[in-house]
Amino acid sequence: MWEKIESNYLYTAKMKTYITGAFLLFGVFLISCSERQQETEIRKPNILFIAVDDLRPELNFYGEGHIQSPHLDRLAGQSLVFDRAYCNVPVCGASRASLLTGARPTRNRFIDYKTLKDADYPDAESLPMHFKNNGYTTLSNGKVYHHAKDDSLAWDEIWHPDGKYTYATEEYREIRANTFRGMPMENADVPDSAYRDGKLALKAIRDLNKLRDGNKPFFLALGFYKPHLPFTAPKKYWDQYRREDIELPENYRQPETTPRKAYHNFGELRNYETIPEEGHLPEELAKELIHGYYACVSYTDAQIGMVLDELERLGLAENTIVVLWGDHGWNLGDHKLWCKHANFNSSLQVPMTIKVPGKTNGRHTDFITETIDLYPSLCELAGLEKPDHLEGDSFVSLMDTGEREKDYAVSKFHDGVTLVKGSFQYTEWTDDQGEAYERMLFDHKTDPLELDNLAEKEEYQSKVDELSMELRERWGESFLTN
Question: Which of 135, 206, 250, 429 is most buried, with most CB under 10 Å away?
């Protein structure tokens, strides 16, 4: 009898153990599922942050059909495309420091290519630093800041491809040894990886494969060099264009009504071999430069396409925001100018797109946007608080409602400050006391090529006064005193 009772007791005890264990396993399963679900719900989006140096909004998705950029077109078809985006300073160093701090240039801050964020605005928490401080892995590849070690603490890694003047042919290197910058163009028959942007794309692909298995979201910044001078790209990209089909821009002239202050001697280009020391360029040389620019855009487009393909292949695209931006415009013979460094639209307007999974689908917006608006927008999309020093405004509402309160941009180059508002682009050159000594006004509705300066015409004086007042209100007094 006791044996039977003991047997029943042991059976009951075992059953209790099995049942308890089952409940425990089920509980662990539920907790695990809950944690995975919670991680999926709260995981921050990755950021792929693509900067392209000297890229004009002269692309298919902006209505132009002569440059071959299929990968940028594909990205635009999945993004919100800004038809009227403007840099805050049309020069590399200053533009990038302004964008990456979300702060405007002032009279004495963010001036030229020598600008260092660490020197001009050391107290500002930069965009990559803000994401790093909020749990992101941050990587900088290529030309993100203009200077390699600027804001170095913001990055977990900073990488650059081979030196600036390391190009494909011995002939080019020999010329480089005897001149300041060498030849302005090269079309060597070499693979894409012979040039820096090809190396950059391969590094980005390696990074994506490592980051995929990480336990943190990433902020991966890629700074592509082309189409910056010199126009060096593999021959196959030059071969996509016929020189005889290339035309000079419609505004290849300098009207007398435009202030002389608006023009410059494009010293950046003058540093290269075969470029005259002064005067306008011969027509054949001008067309060769345009040809080289087109080839470089197609070359960089192909490298960006490789990175985007890998993002898709790895399954990362579903949770990655992709931002593409140009640091400023570029005069490609517009107003008989070359390079940037001016207050014309061709220097200030930039290409900008943002792909947000589940939110964007190729729609365009003509709301005026500044590059300093990127910082607060990415904070909002990632669910991060915005630092107090930001001077731009988020454009995320454009994805949700297509509307936005802000609809203007302010840009500055040296003494010239430009307001873009409605169809008007108004520029004042001011002295240290803020007094305007030269003005320029264009109405893009009737004069998109900016050939008829309206600022001194009597019938536009009330418009000049109105825009002058708004320019100062939008910019604030800091551009006079700081």
Answer: 429
Question: What is the rounded CA–CA span in Å between residue 115 and residue 118?
Answer: 9
Residues 274 and 242 in one domain: yes
- Shared domain check, 69 and 7: no
* Catalytic entry in 71, 87, 130, 146: 146
H/E element, 382: helix 374-382
Q: DSSP assignment of 258-305, as one string? A: S-GGG----HHHHTSTTS-SSSPPPHHHHHHHHHHHHHHHHHHHHHHH
Cα gap 343→261, rounded to integer Å = 10
Q: What percent of the chain has pLDDT over 90?
A: 82
3-state secondary structure 17-51: HHHHHHHHHHHHHHHHHHHHHHHHHHCCCEEEEEE
Q: Is residue 419 part of a domain?
A: no
Position 182 confidence tier, pLDDT thresholds 50, 70, 90: confident
Task: Render pLDDT for 117-165 as a digit per residue (tens, 0 to 9).
Answer: 999 999 999 999 999 999 999 999 999 999 989 999 999 999 999 865 4
Which of 92, 296, 339, 379 does the annotation list as catalytic?
92
Whether residues 9 and 71 fall in one domain = no
Three-class secondary structure of residue 239 per DSSP? coil
Task: Tell me: do 181 and 38 sit in the same domain.
Answer: no
Q: Where are the beta strands (DSSP E) in 302-371?
A: 320-326, 331-332, 338-339, 349-350, 352-355, 364-365, 369-370
Over residues 373-389, the pLDDT tens digits come to: 999 999 999 999 999 99
Query: How far is it, in rounded angstroms, from Cα 248 to Cα 251?
Result: 8
Query: 36: pLDDT confidence band, cut at 50, 70 and 90?
Result: very low
92 given a catalytic annotation:
yes
Residues 80 and 171 in one domain: yes
Q: What per-residue string of b and e applies to 263-293 under the rule 16 or more CB within 10 Å gives b? A: ebebebbbebeebeeeeebeeeebbbbbbbb
Shared-domain flag, residues 150 and 182: yes
Q: Is residue 33 annotated as a catalytic residue, yes or no?
A: no
| Domain encompassing residue 8 | 1-42
Whether 441 maps to a domain, the answer reads no
